[in-house]
Give the backbone structure.
Amino acid sequence: PPKQATLGKFFGRT
Amino acid sequence: MLEARLEQANLLKKVVDAIKDLVQDCNFDCNDSGIALQAMDNSHVALVSMMLKSESFSPFRCDRNIALGINLTSLTKVLRAAQNEDILTLKAEDAPDVVNLVFESAESDRISEYDIKLMDIDQEHLGIPETEYAATISMPSAEFQRICRDLMALSESVSIECSKEGVKFACQGDIGSGSVTLRSHTNVDKPEMNVEIDLTEPVSLTFSLKYLVGFCKASSLSGQVKLCLSNEVPLLVEYALANNSYLRFYLAPKIGD
């Protein structure tokens, strides 16, 4: 089954 | 100092109610443009982004940037003391230890006043890139809530597929499978019932229903919800508020096999 990604993969830290 | 007066306590009550199960301790970042909040859930899968523009308050005064670190459980306890129709005023000094909330009944001379102790919250702040989404769906917020609840009875996940045919919410579970398909629809008498699908390329993504059902607690804030999708990027779920204010949720997709 597909795995849950986290937001850190898409959004950079500021 | 901060002084922000809301015509109706209801707005803040609903916003806090919609996010308090997702995030616990948050900074309310106040500056002259309004009050903003950005926070991720503990698992870093979902993010809430709230913006209450200064125009949503009357009057609004904030001379300096002030971060109010507030525990949402505490805020909920205090907001319970406000009637929906009360006028609510938030006040804080420039380097505050507490935030002061005043509730005024428009009908009687009752004034209640509460202070909530502030916390030092070292919060990670994420930069959310400007995205041209491949599909944008506007639909009644109650419809979205119903779809999410209905499909969660069957499965943990939902696939959202958007094509020229419409948008299909589908799930598969142990007892079977289900789907709901919506097509663009205009209701001249009740524009809140409209379904609008704006598509530049087909999209198919899978998301956790537990989070989506949680986001739907914001349904009472707005008759319509906007879903913005592109392949392999987080879903944006937006509840637009008056005066360009908003409550947005981002949800990371489930990816791969």
About this structure: The helical segments of chain B are 9-19, 72-79, 141-152, 209-215. The mean pLDDT of chain B is 96. The CA atoms of residues 1 and 94 of chain B lie 5 Å apart.
